[in-house]
Amino acid sequence: MNKHLKILLVFIGLIGLFTSCDNDGMKVVMLDNPIAPTLTTVPDLTLQRSAGNDTLTFSGTPVDPGFQASANYFLEACASGKNFADPITLISGTSPDVMKIKVSDLNTILLRSFKGDVATSVDLRLRANLVVDAGTGAIGTSSKPLTYSSEIKTVDVTPYGLPRLDLIGLGTTQKIQSVLGDGVYTGYVSLTASDLFTLNDPDAATNYGDNGSNNGKLKVDGDAITSPGDGWYQLDADINNLTYALQPYNVGVVGAFTDWGGQPDHMMAYNTDKGYWYIDIDLPAGPMKFRLNSDWSVNWGPGADTDLPADGGTLALPDGNGNIIITSAGNYTIHLTLNGSSGSVTFIKN
Predict the structure, then answer these.
(1) Which CATH number fits domain 164-248: 2.10.70.10, 2.60.40.3620, 3.40.50.800, 3.30.499.10?
(2) pTM: predicted TM-score of the whole model, two decimal places
(3) Nearest by Cα to 123 from 157, 78, 58
């Protein structure tokens, strides 16, 4: 009996050894045809200025490659039938289950590509960029990126037009807008230290300037407003309370190649029609991200360090914790779209 028991215990031990070795060498294998994400719920996109502070919710399902994986998701729109040749990103993030956006924010994004107060047929899709860890056996090279898109949903979209104040006296066309139509206007403007300007409401044919105290107070037909210096500014104006404010808003590229701020940031410019910050820049291989006013109190990056494909691509920027790792040095055109503390960025390798 003892002999038989010893043989049985040895046999069990050998099975455990072989099983352990098999587990140690186990690889996660991706499906030959991963299941693409789906866009399941789309709200009514006839937007109303009176509902500007309301929240709209889109929903979808995640990509399924056959194993537990993380991905960046982009809810994208383009004019119907354009095959997403020039899409705009409405929402980006790391989860497609519940995607929320304020009506006024969505309206601002849509006005970059579609006319206000006019119904336009628009194609929507949910796109996933799959993040694959080493050892999965999956292909993730720049020649075959791990990108999967939902079926297209075609809907009518009607953004509402925005009241505006035009900056007069600069020699260039610049404006700030009221996203809620409530007399409160905001926008980004490019100024120099020698600039003087007033604010004109073209709908009411009213001109606003400084009340003479130079302390942020407006007056109808008041004095020209003086720029604080060179650079980009966020200009806010409230014609209900007759106030205004100019705050520096300079978005810069920073990274290991600038000694993380030891050298000046590479400053971006703002495209007021499309609503994104942009720059053409030579980037070496290594980490980089974006920050505001050459200061770390406000910065943008992915949720964790993320490699940029060799030929560029689009990344979600849910917060500022991680860096974008440039894997292939070269000249890039960068388009950075910011929605408060988050946003998305597209790198185009030239």
Answers:
(1) 2.60.40.3620
(2) 0.75
(3) 78
